[in-house]
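#struct-pred

JT: dropping the chains for the assembly here, can someone run the whole complex?
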Amino acid sequence: MALEDVCSFKERPVQHKWFSFSSLGDAAIPFPKSDYYNLRLETSENNCGVPLHFFIPPLPHSSSFINRPLSSFCPPKNSMTVQRPFRLAHGTTTLGFIFQGGVIAAADTRASAGGLVACPAVHKITPIHSHLVVTSSGSGADCMLWERILIREIRLYQLRHGHRLSIRATAKLLSSMLHPFKGTEMCVALTLCGWDNGPKLIYVCSDGARLQGDVFSVGSGSPYAYGVLDRELRWSLSKGEAISLAREAVFRATHRDAYSGNNVDLFHITAQGWIVTVMRSVKTNLCAHEKKPRNL
Amino acid sequence: MLSSQHFGDPGKMKDYHYTGPVEHKFSPYAYNGGTVLAVAGEDFAIVASDTRLSEGYSIHSRDSPKCYKLTDTTVLGCSGFHGDCLTLTKIIDARLKMYKHSNNKTMTSGAIAAMLSTILYSRRFFPYYVYNIIGGLDEEGKGAVYSFDPVGSYQRDTYKAGGSASAMLQPLLDNQIGFKNMESVEHVPLTKDKAVQLVKDVFISAAERDVYTGDALRICVITKEGINEENIPLRKD
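RK: done, full complex below.
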């Protein structure tokens, strides 16, 4: 930072452990940084693509902790976090599937924190670039931040290498960025839906899973969505049929799952890029269904 | 003054019967109550908070507002654990100054929101126990409200209530400002005076039903002329 350079400010390392988790191109950071208050005190030569610094609280039985060999990418496991007195945003239904017309990605828009609906209009599908969207489920803050980090890394790769990273490589990159957090309470389950030389659908999860497939549904409402999808999903669906199938699947899941609800976001990805369909409230679907005569 | 309450239920003490030996662990968090609210209009934004600071059954202060002025066009409201609120606002002030000195301009509301998100997430494994709401004017002069969860997930809203009475106030705001759950109602755009009156009414209701909200109300109205602060007394019981 300019002010720090002008003052020739050099920070002394403190005993608090501060691990930095970096991505591409950054080999071992030799010493834990000491930016305790997150003031971004980095000297100019250290600005080598570290996306985020995390503060890890020192464990109560810290003797064993200090003697551990310092591996820079490994946060300490087993209950390293402090007991939190609040709930985080969780609970969702997202789905994605491939058909002859491209890829469909759909999700509900409810963010719940414990029993409260923290936000009724969250966007769980985020575009990464013109031919790739990612649907997120798990903890809201984790997904939001990791999507931001992924967008940044993809853009940097494109600028450095002159071509866009393939979707399979993007999934592998994301998986390796999440790997240091395996075993912590971070919960991120993303589905990459995109097009490069053909439709692609890859599921990446903070437990380490990375799976390519034709249909995925993730979240607390996913069993209900799978039930609807498995019945009618075919390769030869038309675009209108596929969109209404995705919407129906999310609607049924919101009907049965308490933690999913509100609106349905829908993205359609083709060779030309992604198109978003206008959000419609699930109340519209509900009214349409109520009008149908019931066969008992 | 160490409080020995269990922080799963803020303010509730365990019943007076023997449940077996209990190990008490030191918790680094405390819950100090308070409610914050923000509303965005066409060319204004309002951030309001009560001024009661409580812990368990005690009131520490009746004059501890939870609105913090960040720039001429942005106000931050934070409720939750007061210690973390103070540290967080100090860090944000420092980062604002650093930005100003490096880039020779003030941070915009959207930029402050994005920065706060990364500050909160950097403490993902030992979070700041703070519920933040930022209210201000965006680059075009329109009102903007950004609401956060304690670990940094955020989004832009038109209105948001946070803190102890948030579950009571949010449905009321959905109805009155968002015109939700009402049939055949004309969507009248919100004027500044109507919004201020609504905020006062809403806090009076919150003080009636929530024990952690009360004493006084501090309203900050942000327009392009600047920030105007107003203090209104509330129930003190």
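JT: nice. The mean pLDDT of chain A is 76. Chain A is about 30% helix and 25% strand.
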